Automatic annotation (TrEMBL):
It comes from Thermohalobaculum xanthum. Pfam families: GATase, GMP_synt_C, NAD_synthase. It comes from the Bacteria. It catalyses: XMP + L-glutamine + ATP + H2O = GMP + L-glutamate + AMP + diphosphate + 2 H(+). This is GMP synthase [glutamine-hydrolyzing]. Signal peptide: none annotated.
Amino acid sequence: TCLIVDFGSQVTQLIARRLREAGVYCEIHPFNLVDETLIRRLAPKAIILSGGPASVEDEGSPRAPQMVFELGVPVLGICYGQMVMVHQLGGRAEGGHHREFGRAFVKMAETSALMEGVAGRGEETEVWMSHGDRVTALPPGFHVQGASPNAPFAVLADPDRRFYGVMFHPEVVHTPKGTQILTNFIRRIAGFSGDWTMGAYREEAIKKIRAQVGDAKVICGLSGGVDSSVAAVLIHEAIGDQLTCVFVDTGMMRAGEADEVVSLFRDHYNIPLIHADDSELFLGELKGVTDPEQKRKTIGRLFIDVFDKHASEVGGAEFLAQGTLYPDVIESVSFSGGPSVTIKSHHNVGGLPERMKLKLVEPLRELFKDEVRALGRELGLPAAFVGRHPFPGPGLAIRCPGEITREKLDILRQADAIYLDEIRKAGLYDTIWQAFAVLLPVRTVGVMGDGRTYDHVCALRAVTSVDGMTADYYPFPHDFLGRTASRIINEVRGINRVVYDVTSKPPGTIEWE
Ligand code: XMP
């Protein structure tokens, strides 16, 4: 095991992700829960200290147990983790007067095992800096291996004890060779063989689910998306018929969604499934609601009501399982005093009301989308299902800005189906991360045949992305857009104009609300 001590950085999960990519098992534990007992139980072969929002000079700012440095295992300190290491080993770190954020170039003063294949002696490499503190005195045994113009202590090392510290973030994609740096640490320096796989993750996850749930009953809300499906199949593997799935038709699903999900779960997997039509309830409660956050919160609340109801139908389920992913978590909650703000209340995280009776089981909370797909393949889910574009819990509600009506949803569903059909025909479905139609609360004038029309505008969205955290719009050829627009306008009554969204994330988000 590699132990990652989390000091509250927004990107700690990315460290774990990179290690999983390097085929190494790791566990993240918040700094305040890392004590001698935990360390003895885990017996880590390497330790990584994450970044975090604090300054080592602040009173009561977080530290690592001193034992971390006495185990004889390699330690890598990243950003705040580097300051902690320096401070606890007898050096000095201070609140820097100038904070440094963004791109920088680190020049190596010597050859370093950490930077093997990244930058040799005298060479530079691009990194992503984000820090406030800086080192002012080195601990005994340490020396500087690399520096940037604003960070004279960018790479520190005590190679004899295998202690390394970097002031930048190797875990983010903006450090182009960051994966190599972390892989060097974990394989070259710490000696991990790198043969850990998604299969092993599956076994671990199953053990954890069994330990959490015991012999209680669990219900799992299926949304038609990949995440909830993978969560359901995983949990079913762990606890069998203690699990019942619930597919709630909110009236805001895509065309054909219900049939596909029901047949996959009932017929293919033989997992007990309740197919509930609660569309009256959802659409009724959403009447007159136009604010995006209020929509999300209303839907979140209704889901809980509905699940509470179905939980009692299956004879008292105690747990609700959800396919919450890491990006949902980080965008919905503020972390341990860190600077992260709520962008949207993803309904399966921040939108949940406090009064919920069911306890949550969220076995995918640490994973990113592409890892969930890998896990889905590992679990034998059909390729077409695993490759499906993400679909948000609140469904078409957040693709229909303004008030939602059955009529608008019907129009949107038809346009969306045509758009996806054209994407499949063009062979682009798997190249695109996510594509969907949005029905705008705007009407424009058109002319069809000899008549005037006054109908809705449909916006098309398609993005490429690796994990949903950042995204680029997809550059469709114009003839594709033209063909799709004319099909939508000709075949869908109620739409007379189509526009294409060319916004990336950031500054946009993928969904419109
Ligand atoms: P945004 O719009 O925040 O979306 O850029 C990022 C990814 O998350 C999906 N999404 C959701 N998924 N519940 C979900 O399960 C939600 O409330 C939710 N909102 C957005 C979105 O479709 C995209 O893939």
